[in-house]
Amino acid sequence: MSRIRNIIRADEMGFCLGVRRAVGTLEDAVSVEDSEVYTLGPIIHNPRVVSDFASRGVRTISKPEEAPADSRVIIRAHGVPLQIKEVLESRGCRVMDGTCPKVIASQKTVKKYSSLGYHTVIVGDADHGEIKGLAGYAENPIVISSAAEAEALELDGPVMVISQTTIKQDEYDEVCAVLKKKCPDLKIVESICSATSKRQEALVDLCGRVDACLIIGGRDSANTQRLYLTARETGIPCWHIQDAREIPSEITRYETIGLSAGASTPDAVILEVEDRLRSM
Length: 280
Known about the structure:
Blueprint: E1 6-9, H1 17-32, E2 37-40, H2 47-54, E3 59-61, E4 72-75, H3 82-90, E5 94-97, H4 101-115, E6 119-123, H5 129-135, E7 142-144, H6 147-151, E8 159-163, H7 169-182, E9 186-188, H8 194-207, E10 212-216, H9 222-233, E11 238-241, E12 256-261, H10 267-279
Parallel strand pairs: 1-12, 2-3, 2-4, 4-5, 6-7, 6-8, 8-9, 10-11, 10-12
């Protein structure tokens, strides 16, 4: 018999400002209906959102050369290297930029310090779209993901370090501590999005008040994965699920369930999970 009596949401969860902007940009493009609409990569890391837009005719491409001339191409929340925008425009595409404002700020910072002769060190996942985009604004950038990788670097002259907007603050702090020892002329840029930090803090608080926790979000969402790791570190039972269909049956062993969600998880998906739990 189910023991679930309480379901508590984290104080900070779900769509962030940057994701809302990207999705809103795509909605605007779809509503015009004067040309084909493409996104360069999935608009956000959530399969439900991508699938919903695909059903409305939006196509996802991986290279700018795949977009026909005169089509509308949406730059996703993670941003792209400047060269890719230039290729799209040279092909006659109508580019609509849905890049998160926080990411745009990071791109401008990387471009500025690179032009001033600083070596650029970017901290994050090298395969993540945001990192690939940032790297496109610097000359010979170095991408690392850990303090151990920072230890192995050999750098001369001025160095600027900046992070992916969605990594954990303590991960970044560890890398910066290493670089401070190695680089006397080090410029540290605080680029982690406040929404990321607030979600982490809210999740830790939530885990102290519940018996088990569900983290809702796309499997490819970096910030959702980090939320899940944070929940695991608290020691309570937790699961990373994409939607209500993945709720584990063993969740019914617990009385109070906590819910948190990544920055690219729609409100509708969170509500479906909550409704399914109440019916179990």
